[in-house]
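tool_call predict_complex ligand=zinc ion
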Amino acid sequence: MGGTLITVAPTGAEADKAKVPELPVTLDELVETAVACERAGAAVIHVHIRGDDAKPTLDQGRLRDTVATLREATGLVVQLSSGGAVTDPESDRLAVLDAEPDMASCTMGTVNFGDDVFMNRWGFIVELHRRMQDRAVVPEYELFDLGHLPSLARLLDEHGLPFGGHVHVDFVLGVPGGAAGDAATVTAFAEGVRRYLPEGTTFSATGIGRTTLPVMFASLASGGHLRVGMEDTVQFARRTPVKDNAQLVKRAAEAAKLAQRPPMSTAEARKLLGIRD
Ligand code: KMH
Ligand code: ZN
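tool_result ok
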């Protein structure tokens, strides 16, 4: 069945640095965590950046610097978040692609997001997909709910395959307002991938908060890949905060090895995802 693609999402837009001091928010902290996570078995990094005030930002200059610095320091596939924070306008989210990442996320529909709404209009999704095709950026389609699967099928049918021709999706489970983070839900999504999406589509799964472990094991058992990181959980276990992102990647790599599907190298990940040279 091949190896396991491990994506690390080290920062996100939600956790508060004042409450989680280990969260990487400066470029130096991000690079340090990226190097450690690559060593621990990650092949892709899903990046949200922060400003000097440690709050999320989509500042163009910072995004460009971040992409260039991560490329110099690591072999990781650099995936920028086009989701940003729930307050980010569509124009800024589209402009993320100007920083020329290898990949970018593309969420397949609007979802309640805790007390907020993560807005993803159909017209916005189409524009993001088209711009990624034009700029040779490989999308990771983020699925927060089962309805996002047929929406992606519609997108591919009406607007064509992504750059590189390979479809890769990520199930983001356990968000309050989205699909639950449990094994039955992973199975339902995996079945939906087979039912709605092109043959050869690959998936990873991430469980938010305490759903991290059930989602991780269910994804491995279903032939899926993994995303872990402090964007998704800041608790390693009950009453035990995460030490750093590499700790989460190491645990994922150990689980992947136990499942007889050891972590993919960055070169293998680039080939699988169809990343441009
Ligand atoms: N921060 C969330 C509102 C993505 O990166 O594309 C959106 C998110 C998804 O994290
Ligand atoms: Zn994200």
